[in-house]
Structures are given as structure tokens and as C-alpha cells.
Specification:
It comes from Tetrapisispora phaffii (strain ATCC 24235 / CBS 4417 / NBRC 1672 / NRRL Y-8282 / UCD 70-5). The protein is of the alpha+beta class. The protein has 6 helices and 12 strands. A 5-stranded mixed sheet has the order 2-1-5-3-4. Strands 11-8-7-6-12 form a 5-stranded antiparallel sheet, with no helix packed on it.
Length: 252
């Protein structure tokens, strides 16, 4: 069975789809509905090939469309199908007329409703134990948490520290907080312990607070940050680093 590349266009959407060259007009209309939103009983289709051959089907006034094969006489491998909705009272045309108010038709699915759906990608991941639903992933997460928390238990606040996060330059400052963060309460990191650091330089992301919850400080803007205990080392030897922001007397 030969196929043909069909570029579908309408006032709301467009895409390219491979279809059988032997498809009937009735089947074509049914395939156009989920793409364009135009009812198969109302639509007008204009089919045009690359060489300019054009055929128009006014399904809304044709009555029976059985036995019609719209691609049968096209010799090329590519055609364009433009779909129009002549019904002025249709939802498609109402949306077009609404202009900037079209967002009032937007449907938002609440998170809790999505969680309850049985036909979602999320449920598919759960059923097939993929990603964070894989027992091996959960076991690795638990092992990592135990390691991080064991390191955190050996640390003390209000001491000098060095922070070395992967692929970043060393930063130094004061360790000001050790504990959980409300900002990650509903994530895989909800039971993790974090280290709040007051950096010597503005190399952080906050002032000791996250989303209105203060954990230490306030400190100067961008002098605060929170990192995993694995990246923190404490000791009096971690004096302030020489700042790259300083200029010598020999520079202007």
C-alpha cells in the first residue's frame, strides 16, 4: 500500500502526516477532526498537489461521500489539505472571532486531578517503574541521603567553611545553618539536610531566605546560599580567598 505525505493546514493548526494513498474521503475527514477541530460533517477541504493540481470537497453540502478517494488521482508524493469550517456557529469560528479573549477557553488540569488519572504519562511511568518510580532509583536516593545526613551531623554552625560544588570554583564563608528546607518539602529532597552558607563574596543566590522563609541572616544580597553537606568542609584554615574583584594600585 503506497503512502503520501500530507501537509494539513487550518486556521488553528498545521502539521505533516503520512497517510495511505488509498484513504477514502470519509476516513480523511475523520482524521482531520482531531487535528483541526472542525466537525467532519461541516468541513470544506481543498487538496492541492505540488504541481498545482487542486480539488475541493464541500462535505457539508455533498450528502454521501462514500466511494470517494481524494488522493487517487494525484501522481506526486506530497499534497496539501486545507480545512475550512463554514459553520459560523461552530466553536472553531467562535474562537476565531473572540480574538484576544480566546484564553477564556483554556482548560487547566489541576495537579491533584492529574495525579488521579489512569491514562496519563505519570501513571504509565508508575506502572512500568520508570524514573523515580524505579526501586533502584529509590534505593540510590536513600543511600545518597544517608551519606549526606551523616556528613551533616558532623558539622557545626558559625565556623569557617569551604564550598566546592562540581565544576565550580571554590567559595568560602561561614556555615550558618544545617537542616531541612521548606522549599523542597514536596520533592525527593524533602528529608535531606542542607547547609546554609554566608559567602565572603556575592557568589550565592539569596540573603539566607528562600520563598519568604528565613534560615539565617539576613546577609547581603547574593551572599547566601544552600548546598548539600557533601560539598562543605569546615576549618579555621579557610580564610577569605583573595578576591578577583580587587584592583591593584597599578591598574586604572
Amino acid at each position: 500500500m503506497s503512502s503520501i505525505s500530507v501537509f494539513v493546514s487550518s486556521n488553528f493548526s498545521s502539521l505533516t502526516k503520512e497517510m495511505s494513498k488509498e484513504i477514502s474521503l470519509s476516513e480523511l475527514c475523520q482524521k482531520m477532526y482531531p487535528i483541526t477541530g472542525v466537525s467532519s460533517e461541516d468541513m470544506e477541504l481543498t487538496i492541492e498537489s505540488a504541481d498545482g493540481n487542486k480539488v475541493k470537497y464541500q462535505v457539508n453540502v455533498m450528502g454521501s461521500i462514500d466511494g470517494i478517494y481524494p488522493f487517487k488521482d494525484f501522481t506526486g508524493t506530497n499534497v496539501t489539505v486545507h480545512v475550512v469550517d463554514p459553520n459560523k456557529d461552530s466553536i472553531v469560528n467562535q474562537l476565531l472571532e473572540s480574538g484576544d479573549n480566546s484564553d477564556k477557553y483554556t482548560y487547566t488540569l489541576l495537579e491533584e486531578d492529574y495525579q488521579r488519572r489512569t491514562d496519563s504519562v505519570l501513571q504509565w511511568k508508575k506502572d512500568n517503574k520508570l524514573g523515580k518510580y524505579d526501586p533502584k532509583y529509590q534505593a540510590g536516593l536513600l543511600k545518597q541521603r544517608e551519606l549526606q545526613n551523616s556528613i551533616a551531623e558532623k558539622l557545626q554552625v558559625n565556623v569557617r567553611c569551604s564550598v566546592k560544588v562540581s565544576n565550580k570554583l571554590e567559595r568560602r564563608g561561614w556555615l550558618r545553618y544545617i537542616g531541612k528546607l521548606q522549599a523542597v518539602a514536596n520533592t525527593d529532597n524533602s528529608n535531606d539536610l542542607w547547609c546554609g552558607v554566608e559567602f565572603d563574596e556575592p557568589t550565592g543566590k539569596n540573603d539566607g531566605s528562600i520563598n519568604g522563609v528565613r534560615y539565617f541572616g539576613p546577609v547581603l544580597k547574593n551572599h547566601g546560599g544552600f548546598v548539600k553537606p557533601l560539598y562543605v568542609e569546615t576549618g579555621d584554615q579557610f580564610t577569605p580567598l583573595e578576591s578577583d574583584l580587587d584592583f591593584s594600585d597599578e591598574e586604572i
